[in-house]
Write a structure and sequence with these properties.
Shape: globular
CATH architecture of the domain at 16-102 and 181-258: 3-Layer(aba) Sandwich
Number of strands: 12
CATH class of the domain at 16-102 and 181-258: Alpha Beta
Oligomer: single chain
Bound molecules: iron/sulfur cluster
Structural class: alpha/beta
Number of helices: 11
Strand order of the largest sheet: 6-7-8-3-9-10-12-11
Helix content: 25-40%
């Protein structure tokens, strides 16, 4: 499975963009007192119209926070959010609500986003009403949306608890489409489904993108699934994007030690790749975002960590093949970056 080819796009600015965005939360800490949870720091991310960016990383890396920042569901602590080429960082009230309609979020557990007392038809109807669709045309449009996601319109009369997990996720996608979005952020949309339903939903998303030109931010911890949908990949670790670039390049030749570890842990279906694969399994658990390690946040788990990694946060370096990477191993290697310049 591969993501659909990218349709030619006339716009010059990205559809959605985070420019050096941070999000910190003041939270209660174990043992009393308050602490600063650094959910996202220095995030630079772009999503082009009609394309998919796969945002990958372990649980607790800050992926969901990035999706909420990109959709302006939360206010950034610092940095800028641009949607459709416009700075919307300080947008509030009605103007923000109007804008949000074009940027939708689909959750891992669709049960949590549907009113359990409302039928699927009613939930989609509500989204169409918000878009000011005429009452007379809403039932036909609801049926059309259900068909678009592969559900028989009669299923719209059911309530969420009467649907299977795969059916309900399709209904959630139909409801997101009801408002005619330019971008849908999908937060682990297939994680709770069995393998066959995962493949069906991935196929559905790719088909909808080809037909409608909708862009996706696809959040997942499953790199096999990310490969099937993504044109670009951004790898997150503890609130930072440590590597990003074209999906093909990152899967073929990951640069950051964390990306290498994540990819080497992915089960290989191809026997040739399975036979040659060195496994660089990352040890231990991801540290707390309440007290991230100094210097490179990955240094406590990195097999290549050097003295500099404990003290200095690595700068983001652009490589010649369109990959950006934040790692001291590549300092001074731009633009014709190849092998690491130093190893422990
Ligand atoms: Fe590892 Fe150092 Fe690179 Fe961080 S900067 S990933 S610790 S080598």
């Amino acid at each position: 499975m591969t993501p659909p080819p990218i349709a030619p796009i006339s716009r010059s600015a990205p559809l959605a963009e985070l420019r050096h965005v941070a999000k910190h939360y003041r939270v209660s800490v174990p043992g009393g007192g308050r602490g600063n949870l650094r959910a996202a720091d220095g995030i630079d991310l772009q999503v082009g119209a009609g394309t998919t960016v796969g945002l990958v990383g372990e649980s607790g890396s800050g992926k969901s926070t990035v999706a909420r920042l990109l959709l302006r569901l939360v206010n950034p602590t610092s940095g800028q959010v641009h949607l459709d080429g416009r700075d919307v960082t300080d947008l509030r009230g009605k103007a923000l609500r109007r804008l949000r309609g074009r940027f939708q979020l689909v959750f891992q557990d669709p049960n949590s986003s549907f009113d359990p007392l409302a039928s699927i038809d009613d939930s989609i109807d509500e989204a169409l009403r918000a878009r000011r669709e005429a009452r007379a045309t809403r039932p036909a449009r609801t049926a059309e949306l259900l068909e678009m996601v592969g559900l028989e319109p009669r299923l719209g009369r059911r309530h969420p608890h009467e649907m299977s997990g795969g059916q309900l996720q399709r209904a959630a996608i139909a409801r997101a489409l009801a408002v005619g979005p330019s971008l849908i952020a999908l937060d682990e949309p297939v994680s709770s489904l069995d393998v066959s339903n995962q493949a069906l939903i991935v196929n559905l998303l790719n088909r909808l993108q080809s037909e409608l030109g909708v862009a996706y931010l696809f959040i997942t911890h499953d790199l096999n699934i990310a490969r099937d949908v993504s044109h670009r990949i951004a790898v997150m670790y503890l609130g930072r994007i440590v590597e990003s670039g074209p999906a093909e390049q990152i899967y073929a030749d990951p640069r950051h030690p964390y990306s290498q570890a994540l990819l080497s842990a992915v089960p290989q279906i191809d026997p040739a790749r399975r036979a040659t694969g060195d496994r660089a399994i990352v040890q231990g658990d991801i540290p707390s975002a309440l007290d991230p390690p100094s210097g490179c946040r990955f240094h406590t788990r990195c097999p290549h960590a050097m003295a500099i990694c404990h003290d200095q946060d690595p700068a983001v370096i652009e490589t010649s093949n369109g990959i950006t990477v934040a790692c001291h191993l590549y300092a001074g290697a731009s633009p014709s970056i190849g092998a690491p310049v130093a190893e422990h």
